[in-house]
Specification:
The protein is of the alpha/beta class and 216 residues long. It is 46% helix and 19% strand. β1 and β2 (47-53) form a beta hairpin. It is globular and about 50 Å long.
């Protein structure tokens, strides 16, 4: 009897450990996938703020879509606040398709706040805002498309022609329609051939890039 009780206690203890470890594992996955926070407090009555923190990958599109379904009928202004190191081009394209749908029923504002980052594929997503706001102390990075980020996330190798073709596709699809300054865009294309181009919200504004409409 004593042995059976001990075995049962050990089993219960093991199950508890497994449950805790499993929860930690899924919490870690959620953090890796990014989080969407809905902010209505402190906002005007006609505005809802969605803050995305994390990579441009699932569940970004799915979470934005869920929240949009709650607010689309009210014609609210939607502010999409971004803090992201970038992610997959293919998935980012899906997010952009959704944002373009949102613009048809709601006013879409994009924002990168104080100390927040908008790197790589985050930038084309930011460019979908009808009004684009950013802090002077926001951090930005532009670069050529890398093989692992390209149109298919299964791409693992590439040559120079592939990289230039993928990069031009991104510029044609997302940068040119955003009506950026043509001179700045040409300079940016030259800069990224030498590597990652890091800058700030203040510098983008001083250069009159057209990336940011309103700086604060």
């Amino acid at each position: 009897m004593g042995g059976a009780l001990v075995n049962r206690m050990v089993w219960v203890g093991l199950m508890g450990i497994i449950i805790v470890m499993g929860q930690q594992f899924f919490d870690k996955l959620a953090r890796m996938g990014g989080t969407l926070t809905v902010i209505t407090d402190g906002q005007p009555l006609d505005t809802v703020k969605l803050r995305w923190e994390g990579p441009i990958q699932p569940p970004m599109k799915e979470r934005i879509y869920e929240e949009w379904q709650k607010w689309r009928g009210e014609k609210r202004k939607i502010i999409l606040s971004l803090n992201s190191n970038g992610g997959l081009v293919s998935y980012g394209g899906k997010v952009i398709t959704l944002l373009r749908k949102i613009r048809k029923s709601n006013k879409l504002v994009t924002d990168v706040g104080y100390g927040d980052k908008c790197l790589s594929m985050c930038v084309p997503i930011y460019l979908q805002g009808e009004t684009r706001m950013a802090s002077r102390r926001s951090v930005w990075m532009f670069h050529e498309v890398r093989a692992r980020e390209a149109v298919s996330d299964k791409v693992v190798s590439s040559d120079r022609d592939d990289i230039e073709r993928w990069t031009q596709q991104i510029i044609d699809r997302y940068f040119i329609p955003a009506k950026l300054d043509k001179g700045w865009l040409r300079d940016m294309e030259i800069r990224i051939k030498s590597g990652d181009y890091w800058t700030s919200g203040a510098k983008l504004t001083r250069e009159k890039s057209g990336i940011i409409h309103r700086v604060y």
